[in-house]
Amino acid sequence: MTDGPYGHEILTAAEMGRADRLAIAAGVTGLTLMENAGHAVANAVRALSGPSARILVLCGPGNNGGDGFVAARHLATDRQVRLALLGEPGALKGDAAAMAARWAGPVEQAEPDSVKNADLVVDALFGAGLNRPLDGAAASLIEAINGSGLPIVAVDVPSGLDGTTGRAEWPVVRATRTVTFFRLKPGHLLLPGRVLCGETTVADIGIPASVLGAAHTTASPSVQTEGGQTEQPLAVTAFVNRPSLWRAAYPRLSLDSHKYARGHAVVVSGGPEHTGAARLGARGALRIGSGLVTLVGSAAATAVNAVASTAVMTRIAGSAKALSALLEDERLNAVLIGPGAGVGTDTAEQVQAVLASSAAVVLDADALTSFAPQKGTLRERGAFGFTASRLVDHPTAARLFEAIGRRSAPVVMTPHDGEFKRLFQDLSGLPSKLDRARAAAGISGAVVVLKGADTVIAAPDGRAAINDNAPPTLATAGSGDVLAGMVVGLLAQRMPAFEAACAAVWLHGAAAAAFGPGLISEDLPELLPRVLASLE
C-alpha cells in the first residue's frame, strides 16, 4: 500500500538515475538531494519509534549508504544511534563520502551481530539499481536483519530487491516500511517486491516535476549534465493506476443523455450449464453505465439466462454465423466473449466472428485459451455408425492476432497468469510482469490486462499501468467475469480502450475494498454505485 503526495508516473532504476542527473543539471546539487532523502528517512524512523529507541543504521558502499549517514546524523539529535558500514570508509566516493565526513559518531563494521541490542534497523545497504545476487557478508547480514524480528525501515528499496522488476531471487530484506524518493519504481508495486517493501512512502527530495513534464513533447530540448553528457528528457510510459490517469476520459452523464447514447454491450454466454459467468459480466457492464446489455447464446442457454435476468436482455445467437448476423447492427457496439464459453474450435470461431465486426471487443478466459498453441483430435461419426478420430490443427494465437490486426475497433484481453502463459508461451522468460504485459500488447495489438494482486494494464503503444488497490478478497470465483463486464461496459460508452481497462481495474479493486471480508463476485456490481459516487 502506498501513500503520500506524488505523481502517478513510475520510473525504473535507470530512469530515476536520469531524473537525478536532470535535477542536478537544473541546479539542484546532489548533496541537497541526499540530504533531503536522509532527512525523510529519519522522519519515517521517528514515526515508528519512541525517544528511547535504539536505532541501528546499516550503510552500504554507495549512495544508498550516503542516505543512511544523513539519516543517522538527523536521528542522533533525539535517538540513540549506532552506525555500521558494510565495507571500508575509505572506499566511499562522491556525495556518499561527503556525507560520511559529516557524521560525528563512530563507524562500526556491519556484521550479523550488529542487530543485537537494537530496537529498529535502517536498511541503507543497497538501492534499487542492484542487479546482482547478494552473497557472502551481505547475504549473512540480510539473514540476520530478517531474523531479528525488529521493525525495518528500508531506504529506496529493501536491499537485494530489483527495483525495476520487483524480483527477489536472492536474499532480500523484508521491510516494515520503505521510503523512496520522487516517484515509485516498478519493484514497489510488482510482487513479490510490494510485499517485501511493507508500507511504501514517497518523499519529495527536491527533484522538480519538470524533469518529467518535458518528456511529453518531442520539442523538449536536451540537457547538458555536469559530466558533459547530453541527457534527453524522460519519456515516461508507465504509471500507477489512479483515477488521475483516466478520469478525464471517463464517460459523464448529461441532462440530454439517454440509454441509446450510452452504448449497447453484448455478452456471449456459455452453454446452459455454464451461464453464470456471462451473467456476472453482463451485470458488471450494466452497473458501470452501459445503456443496454444483451446476453446472447444458444436457445438452451438463453432460456436459462432469460429466467435469471431482468434489466439485462436476452437473445438467441448460438453460433458464429448467428453472431455475425447479430453484430451487423452497429448499435451493438461492444462485445464480451469468453466467460464460461468453453475451450475449443466453436468458441474460436465465435471469437473470429466477433472480431470481424465493427464492435469493440473484450476477450476473456476461454476466448483466449481456445487459441493457445496445441493439437487436438476431432471425433467424427462415420457412414456405418462407428467413430473415428483425426488430428486437426487447433486455432492458433497467430490467427487471433492477425484478426485483431485487421480491425480498427479496439480489443482488450483480460487473462490471468495461467491463461497468459498458455497464449504467450514465448514471453515467459522476460524479467518482469510489466515487461511481459507490454510485449504481449505489442505482439497481439490488444490492450492486455494481466490480472493478479499486481494487475498490469498495457497498451500496444507502450503505455502501461500497475494497479495496487486490489484486496485479497478479490480471489473469489467470478470476480474476473465482473471485471471483464466492466471493461466492455466502458467500451460501450466509447471510453478509449487503455483508459477503460485502467478504470475498470481500479474501480473493481475499490468496490472489493468497500465491501470487506466475505466478498463474493455477485457483490461487486452492487458496490459500484458507492464507488462511482466517490469519483464525483
Q: What are the low-pLDDT stretches, counting only 5+ consecutive residues below 50?
A: 214-221, 376-392
Provide the CATH top-level class of the largest domain: Alpha Beta
State the CATH architecture of the largest domain. Answer: 3-Layer(aba) Sandwich
**What is the number of domains?**
2
Indicate the structural class.
alpha/beta
What topology, given as strand order, has the largest sheet? 11-22-21-20-19-16-15-12-13-14
Q: Number of helix segments?
A: 20
Rounded mean pLDDT score: 92
Give me the count of strands.
22
Task: Report on this structure.
The chain has 536 residues and is an alpha/beta fold. It folds into two domains: 2-205 and 212-236, 3-Layer(aba) Sandwich (Rossmann fold), CATH 3.40.50.10260; 262-371 and 393-535, Ribokinase (UDP-N-acetylmuramoyl-L-alanine:D-glutamate ligase, 3-Layer(aba) Sandwich). The chain is built from 20 helices and 22 strands. The strands form four sheets. The chain has a ten-stranded mixed β-sheet, sandwiched between helices. The protein has an eight-stranded parallel β-sheet with strand order 1-8-7-6-5-2-3-4. Strand 21 and strand 22 form a beta hairpin. Helix 2 (30-48) packs across helix 4, helix 12 packs parallel to helix 13 (345-355) and helix 18 (479-492) packs across helix 19 (497-515). It is elongated, with a radius of gyration of 27 Å.
Helix/strand layout:
Blueprint: E1 2-3, H1 13-25, H2 30-48, E2 54-59, H3 63-75, E3 80-85, H4 94-102, E4 108-109, E5 120-124, H5 136-147, E6 152-155, E7 177-181, H6 186-189, H7 193-197, E8 199-203, H8 210-213, E9 223-224, E10 230-231, E11 238-240, H9 243-246, E12 264-268, H10 276-287, E13 292-297, H11 299-308, E14 313-316, H12 320-326, E15 334-337, H13 345-355, E16 360-363, H14 366-369, E17 375-381, E18 387-393, H15 397-405, E19 411-413, H16 417-423, H17 433-444, E20 447-450, E21 456-458, E22 464-466, H18 479-492, H19 497-515, H20 523-535
Parallel strand pairs: 1-8, 2-3, 2-5, 3-4, 5-6, 6-7, 7-8, 11-22, 12-13, 12-15, 13-14, 15-16, 16-19, 19-20
Antiparallel strand pairs: 9-10, 17-18, 20-21, 21-22
